[in-house]
Amino acid sequence: MIVDTLERVQKIIAEQMERPLSDIEPETKLEDLGDSLDLIEVVYALEVEFKVDIPLNSKRPDEKLETVQDVARIIDRLVAEGDAA
After folding, report:
1. Chain centroid to CA 14
2. What sign results for the dihedral spanned by CA atoms 22, 24, 29, 30?
3. What are residue 52's DSSP bridge partners?
4. Residues 76, 73: Cα–Cα separation, whole Å
5. How many angstroms separate the CA atoms of 32 and 25, rounded?
6. What is the pLDDT of residue 85?
7. Backbone angles phi, psi at 23, to 5 degrees
8. Is 67 strand, coil or helix?
9. Sign of CA dihedral 22, 25, 28, 33
10. What Cα–Cα distance (Å) separates residue 10 from each residue in 49, 59, 60, 85?
11. Which of 26, 28, 66, 80 fits a 20 to 30 Å CA distance from 34?
12. How far apart are CA 85 and CA 82, in angstroms?
C-alpha cells in the first residue's frame, strides 16, 4: 500500500509546488521544496485527498516529517488507523 500512497503524495506535491513529478523523489527533503506557506498548502491538499489530519509538530519520533517518504509513511499509518479528518 505504501507504494500507491507514495505515488499519490509525490503527484500532489508536484502539482501543488508546480514542479515536474521527476523532481519529487521519496528522499526529497520537504524543506527543499519551498517555504513554510507552500508546505502548509501541500499538507492541506494531502489531508483533503487522504482524509486524515497530518501532525505537523508532533514530538513522536515516528511522526517526523522530513522527506516525501516520511509523509507517505505517516499517511499510510493514519489511513490504516482510521484517523479521519
Report:
1. 11
2. positive
3. 84
4. 5
5. 12
6. 46
7. -80, -15
8. strand
9. positive
10. 12, 25, 23, 21
11. 80
12. 9
For residue 29, the 8-state DSSP code is B
Using DSSP's 3-state secondary structure scheme, residue 34 falls into coil
What's the grid cell of residue 83? 484517523
Q: Largest Cα–Cα distance in the chain?
A: 32
Determine phi and psi for 29, rounding to 5 degrees.
Answer: -80, 135
Q: Are 75 and 54 in contact (CB under 8 A)?
A: yes
Report how far Cα 85 is from the mean position of its chain's Cα atoms. Answer: 15
pLDDT tens digits for 23-54? 999 999 999 988 888 889 999 999 999 999 99
Q: Tell me the backbone φ, ψ of residue 52, rounded to 5 degrees.
A: -135, 165
Amino acid (one-letter) located at 52: V
All cell numbers assigned to 43: 499538507
The domains located in the chain, with CATH, are: 2-81 (1.10.1200.10)
What letter represents residue 75's amino acid? I
pTM (2 decimals)? 0.86
Q: Is the pLDDT of residue 1 over 60?
A: no
